[in-house]
Amino acid sequence: MANPLFLFLLFLNVAAAPRAGADGADPCAGRRIYIRHLPPRFNADLLRHCGADAFPLADASAAATSAPPCESLANHGLGPRTHPRSRSWYRTDARLLEPFFHRRILERDCLADDPARADAVFVTYYAALDALPYVLDPALLDASARHGEELAGFLARDQPRILSRRQGHDHFLVVSGSAWDYAQSPGEGPRLWGTTSLLRRPELANFTFLTVESRMWPWQEHAIPHPTSFHPATLPHLRAWLARARRSRRGTLMLFAGGVSRPSRPNIRGSILAECANRTDACAVVDCSGGKCSHDPGRYMRAMLGAKFCLEPPGDTPTRRSTFDAILAGCVPVFFEDLAARRQYGWHLPPARYDEFSVHIPKETVVFGGVRIAETLEAVPEAEVRRMRKRVLEMAPRVLYRRHGSTAELRGAGKDAVDLAVDGVLRRIRRRTCAQDEGRPERIYAMEDDSVEM
């Protein structure tokens, strides 16, 4: 079997030549993207971390289920198949969203070979992989404030007109992970383990960053869905899964999939675990402690298919990958704070429609107010549960990442997470560049809600 790393690097090298955008004005008007090709040290060379003992991509704490080093790069970053006969399910490492997104951008129509004709500039920087030495090597902890410094210098020196034309307002890139992990102030000390200052670099302040979780106030960030393990390549594969989720028998009222260690202080996760321990007739728990679920979707997806509601409490940060797994399974998500999703994924899950496909129970009422989650969910009429499940499955194609090279039939059936993210970026960039052209700088930084109704 060919080495996945070799195949991945070979593809990137072959695909490195810019592709011309379409000549016709109508199909590509406002949609032309110039791919800002960078030296390999900013992307392809970083994939070699997977083979280094110091910075392995595979999670050593979950060695029983994690893909071996470099195997995570199989299938252009989707990871190895969960089963030899699988055509849609992969052991996906979320940290490889950047190269996978790059692969999908290379497939798009309307790529421009001239940056002066482009509406947006995609920067092919694998930020999360470049951050690995800073967050894993204690000797480099104090240098983490310099993350992105080399990239900023290169963009300023190499073909500087590309950056200066719009002062960076037309540039965008993808960062695997939460924005909080890249937002420590450069001047703060001591440095926090696991964080860098990439998003605080003034040279990149006008870029649009696509992260799997954004902060609420910085205008340059926008959240896109956490990658799941489901990546269909054909319309029949997508329809077959949705049909399975639709007809699945759901004998469990509610499910929690996540870490099961009890917190030292009262919080919503501890309340959920305590209630599930007392209501085994209504609640199921999937232990995902220590990364057990990271590369093993079968461990939790079967349980989600059998549950009516999936509990999505915040963890270290407000959002969870489990939310998107639940949506794919047709398991109605239950949120305990607005920051968990409602204020995060407006391009993919319209905020005004959350009540149609999810339940919100304020965490304070559970932790301190005596509200019982099971009793609240038992009170939802069965007809309403079926209606919400129908809406959830309607949302599912919007939050999954199709496999690269998917069929024209599947692409024509609707937009997936990548398509919607790029559409959102183009809208945002168009608003900013129009404000520049009109001499209205106050509009460049407008914090408008740019979610799209379905």
From TrEMBL:
Q: Which Gene Ontology cellular component terms are annotated?
A: Golgi membrane
The source's superkingdom equals Eukaryota
| Gene Ontology terms for molecular function | glycosyltransferase activity
Q: Where in the cell is it found?
A: Golgi apparatus membrane
InterPro entries per UniProt: Exostosin (IPR004263), Exostosin_GT47 (IPR040911)
**UniProt keyword list:** Glycosyltransferase, Golgi apparatus, Signal, Signal-anchor, Transferase, Transmembrane
Q: How does it sit in the membrane?
A: Single-pass type II membrane protein
Its chief place of residence is Golgi
**Entry-linked PANTHER family:** EXOSTOSIN HEPARAN SULFATE GLYCOSYLTRANSFERASE -RELATED, XYLOGLUCAN GALACTOSYLTRANSFERASE GT19-RELATED
Similarity comment text for this entry: Belongs to the glycosyltransferase 47 family.
Q: State the protein's name.
A: Exostosin GT47 domain-containing protein
